Amino acid sequence: MVNPYPDTFRLRRKIKANFHTHSKYSDGRLELQRVIDLYSRLQYKVLMISDHDVFGGFVNADNKGLTLIPGVEVSDGGPHMLQVGIGDKIKPDPDRQAVIDAINNAGGYAIMNHPKWEPGLNHWPVDVLLKLRNYLGIEIINGNCYHDAGSAEALDVWDAVLSAGKRIWGMGNDDCHFTHDVGICWNTILTDDPSPRGILHALKRGSFYVSTGIEINNITMKNKAIVVTCRDADIIVAIGEHGCELAYGKSGSITFDVEKIVMPYVRFECYGRGRKRAFTQPFFNQDSLSYKPVPKTTALRIADVKSISDIKTELWQKGAAVTEMISVKKGVSAEDSTRFCILYDRKNIYIKALCYEPDTSKLEKSRTRSIYSDDSVEFFFDPGRTCNEYYQIVVNAAGNVEVLKNTPHTLCTIKGLVIKAALKPRRYEIALSIPFKSITAAYPAHNAWGLNFIRNRTGLKRDSYVWSWTGTYNHLPSRFGVLEFDQ
Ligand SMILES: [Zn+2]
Ligand SMILES: [Zn+2]
């Protein structure tokens, strides 16, 4: 686990900062100097004026003791984002990756603003945030959005992005346009260097937390336990992958044991009176498999066959593509062997799963619905790697089958799907054949697919094995492995 906070948390200077404010240089109602005066009165030490696509400048302003960070809110042409730490206006290219790259090249940091602003709650859709690279974080709270359409809080968006294996920080900004926006939320930065350089360095390493009114007194990580102390909190909640609440701490403190955690991160929310809360940054588990690149494999091209039954054992063996599975419970290589062979011809893709089992009499295989609760194999396909629409075929050891199209999960049928199940002395086998034309219009030869396999072991092991690690939730198509088609 990586602790973003310094070991000497308690002794460090705590600097109150807001990185998102407007002035009359764009659509703010307040003069730039008035904005600075208001923040100075509330004991802020750092302020970034971030007018829309214009660097208003503050050269002639009286800083009133504040460190002023140069910045702009890049707005035209797409969802809004902050360029932090650079004054020069970056071209608001509709290709937001180009904007991020330009900000980074100029030595600044990119923060994605108010992800759930506007009625659709979708200013920054999760799938867009998953595809973009090299931004420092997102606004998890945007003060101005409390009295505008949409949601001011985007903690769920944050968890969705973190769970897919991205490491980004959460920021809380007022997005001040009016007097009543001043001081809704802020970032408390831990650094002894209040210069712009020191502030930016602390931001980069995540050495700050977000507050709407209470202060965190201490954060430490010792002997594989994280301790968060927030005396004004009634309850402190540890949050993990996909926003799951993992543990609770009463009386202003929580001790969280990280030793056995396979999740990519854990973060903490402190709840005080009313809406007063504080949010730590995530502690990243650098050993988590969520940070490993997804595996790749290749389907072997064969001469056309009439039916899947015509494929000889030797040919299946040639198409052996996946032999290494990971235990979901333990996050390490699964001890009992599972092998997948993948072949294709002009019309179908053929897959055979060989599931070795020391005692086949213990297999559970009587279900006809919710088949994944039996000893079963789940095949996930995302033709075209949309990371959005994909198929899930679940077959138990008896050959009962359930086909779903995701998302949302909907039962469906695939025309021409053939399933063969066989029970052998020390294994069970499932073979299937899927006509390309039933699941995708294009012949696959030049397109990689998203692919994943899950083997559910119910009878003997009470565990599941997975090929490409998706964490505790299988439905994460951005983490599926890649299937290429041998020519
Ligand atoms: Zn905005
Ligand atoms: Zn704004």
Defining traits:
487 residues; mainly beta; TIM Barrel; Immunoglobulin-like; 14-stranded mixed β-sheet; 7 helices; elongated; binds zinc ion
Short description:
With 487 residues, the protein is mainly β. It has helices spanning 32-41, 96-105, 126-131, 155-163, 196-204, 313-318, 436-439; strands at residues 14-21, 46-49, 67-69, 71-74, 81-84, 109-112, 137-142, 169-173, 186-190, 208-211, 218-222, 225-229, 235-239, 245-250, 253-257, 265-271, 277-279, 283-284, 296-301, 320-322, 326-327, 338-344, 348-356, 376-383, 390-396, 401-406, 410-411, 418-424, 427-435, 449-457, 463-466, 481-485. It folds into 2 domains: 9-288, Alpha-Beta Barrel (TIM Barrel); 292-485, Immunoglobulin-like (Sandwich).
Could you describe the 3D structure shown?
With 487 residues, the protein is mainly beta. The chain folds into 2 domains: 9-288, Alpha-Beta Barrel (TIM Barrel); 292-485, Immunoglobulin-like (Sandwich). The chain is 11% helix and 35% strand. The protein contains 7 helices and 32 strands. It has helices at 32-41, 96-105, 126-131, 155-163, 196-204, 313-318, 436-439, and strands at residues 14-21, 46-49, 67-69, 71-74, 81-84, 109-112, 137-142, 169-173, 186-190, 208-211, 218-222, 225-229, 235-239, 245-250, 253-257, 265-271, 277-279, 283-284, 296-301, 320-322, 326-327, 338-344, 348-356, 376-383, 390-396, 401-406, 410-411, 418-424, 427-435, 449-457, 463-466, 481-485. The strands form 4 sheets. Strands 19, 20, 21, 22, 23, 24, 25, 26, 27, 28, 29, 30, 31 and 32 form a 14-stranded mixed beta sheet that branches. Strand 22 and strand 23 form a beta hairpin. The two termini are 43 Å apart. The model has no long low-confidence stretch (mean pLDDT 94).
